[in-house]
Amino acid sequence: MKYFFMLLTILSSVLFNAQKNALPKKTAAVTKLNPNFIKVNDSVADLIPQKMAGKFGFINQAGKIIIKHEYSNVGFFARDCNLQNSPNKKVQQFGSDQYASVRLNGSDYRINKAGKRVYHFKESDLGKCAPEYKAQLFHAYIMNGAYGIIEDSKFENPGDYRQFTIYPQYDYLHIMEGDDLHNPMIIASYRNRFGVIDIHNKVIIPFEYSDIKRNFSWKLARLFEVTKDGINYFYVDGNNHGY
């Protein structure tokens, strides 16, 4: 009798394992990352405009050409509020930050991140943008020919050096447009070279450039557009890493 029970136990074990193996296996969901859009710096745009041989295209953060250089001008992949507020509902989607505005042979288009031209601008499609202006908390202040920084709400007496956020000491200062009004990036010029400082007078980008453009590149992509020769511009991030 005991041999019967041993045999029954063995058969039950075999049947259980067979059924277990017959069940469909759960597969873990795997997200495949597109290597073209893997970021070195998470705060920087994944596609960056680049000029080559007089034409613009886009590279990724590793420097690989993703969209060929064929345009006379390009912008970042960013919102276009005129399209987002378009009276034509079919084109509102092209106002999202998944598209960039480009110019080719005098005509303006929106392209996707694969480089495909998906929309041709029409005047009748453009809506009105609501004002997005935010008053700056800090401003440049010139004293004795030198630039410093003041905080409007705290500054009253230029004779009191303690009221200056940054005491005048630079050849030129420009506060960049950005989302953080309390800690803006500031383009600075000192001894004919340009760099970037923060509101605490800490050097963010060293003074090694002949010019830094005063545009929206920091606000849109966390990049600064710089040049060393005054002709060829390129982008650097907040760590002075070039793209």
Question: Which structural traits does this protein have?
Answer:
4-stranded antiparallel β-sheet, 243 residues, mainly beta, 2 domains, 12% helix
Round the mean pLDDT to the nearest integer and report it: 88
Number of domains: 2
> Percent of residues in beta strands?
35-45%
The rounded distance between the terminal residues' Cα atoms is 81 Å
Count of runs of 4 or more consecutive helical residues:
3
Strand segment tally = 17
Q: How are strands sequenced across the largest beta sheet?
A: 4-5-6-7
Spans of at least 5 consecutive residues whose pLDDT stays below 50 are: 1-31
The secondary structure category is mainly beta
Could you estimate the helical fraction of the residues in percent? 10-25%
Molecular shape:
globular
Biggest sheet overview = 4 strands, antiparallel
Instruction: Evaluate the radius of gyration.
Output: 28 Å
The succession of helices and strands, N to C, reads HEEEEHEEEEEEEEEEEHEE
Written overview of the protein:
The protein is mainly β and about 240 residues long. It has two domains: about 35-125, no CATH class; about 140-235, no CATH class. Helices cover about 10% and strands about 35% of the residues. The protein is built from three helices and 17 strands. The strands form five sheets. A four-stranded antiparallel beta sheet has the order 4-5-6-7. The longest helix is centred in the N-terminal third of the chain and has 21 residues, at about 1-20. The N and C termini lie far apart (about 80 Å). The model is unreliable at about 1-30 (pLDDT under 50).
